[in-house]
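Fold this: ABC transporter ATP-binding protein
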Amino acid sequence: MSAVSVRDVTVAFEAFRVFDGLSLDIEEGEFIVLLGPSGCGKSTLLNAIAGLLDVASGQIWIGGKNVTWEEPKDRGIAMVFQSYALYPRMSVRENMSFGLRMAKTPKPEIERRVNQAAELLQITHLLDRRPDQLSGGQRQRVAIGRALVRDAAVFLFDEPLSNLDAKLRNELRVEIKRLHARLGKTTMVYVTHDQIEAMTLADRIVVLKEQKVQQIGSPDEIYRRPANLFVAGFVGSPQMNFVKGRIEGSGAGPEFVSGKRRLSLAGYQFTDAPQPGREVVLGVRPEHLDILEAGTWPDFKVDIVEPMGADTVIWCSDGEGSIQVRTSGSKRTARGEALSVGVDPAQISLFAADSGDRL
Ligand code: ATP
């Protein structure tokens, strides 16, 4: 039985239809990230699961129950938003216990749950403060704590870290991952446009673009076998290199050709048999390129060197265009230097130039 089952769901804002029959099954204990650029429909999907908006057709099941027409409070979910939405005049303790007090939960039970959540989030020492006496990161911990006391089986997060600075975001990201591990069977559905959050937190990522699912898979699958050009470009930093070219057939097997650049595709696992002459885009991540004495693609020149500590990103170009190579941080090169690029054919992706789909 799935923890959350989205069945053939369509949401409509008047004439504008979002998700024409979207289906998604989320397993118990799974950490699912909904990833995509602004407007792709992440929040709409989360809100449909939460019951904050009605579906035009289809069903939402949570914990084996059809909750399509249930109120949010009756769905067995807890939600954490980007804006912490804490009550300013209440203490942290009162903020965290508010929902339970409204639900007339017995006092000792409230105390037990609040103390337990506070301990888990390391905010016990803040319980008597008001929100204005907290930092942004502490406020977001309280907001998570307020969700945690509900003892829900499913947690829904809508960009919970977007308002925090980079360092705090990294800290709380690890905290959320730890929380998920400690809670064991709690299912989490997490919305973000940040591909690093998605890669580091998710068991599975749902990549969305323009209200359509582009790919569902583990971070590894999404990174290594992107289903199309959009997914390939959206995930990974620095971005995947894209090289336009075509497939040429020969006795020795198919080859990728782009001007003077050539690459044997003998080892490439095509999902679709290649047709010679087909226009394609070759995708290769900067870390799958190498700088060699005599690489696959010679005649490059260094344009820009970006030292990043652990790595160095080298922007270089030949007569055909520019590519980025990610190499060791100790690599020393200078602008204008000549180099030769090694391509690992086992690590490339090929996409159809017209549809953008993986070949
Ligand atoms: P963001 O990261 O900017 O929050 P998102 O991926 O969460 O974006 P949604 O907020 O789910 O995107 O919006 C999906 C689409 O639905 C967008 O095109 C948006 O303009 C549209 N939309 C959302 N809410 C409404 C509404 N109440 N009325 C009309 N259209 C809406």
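The chain has two domains: 4-234, 241-352. The radius of gyration is 25 Å.
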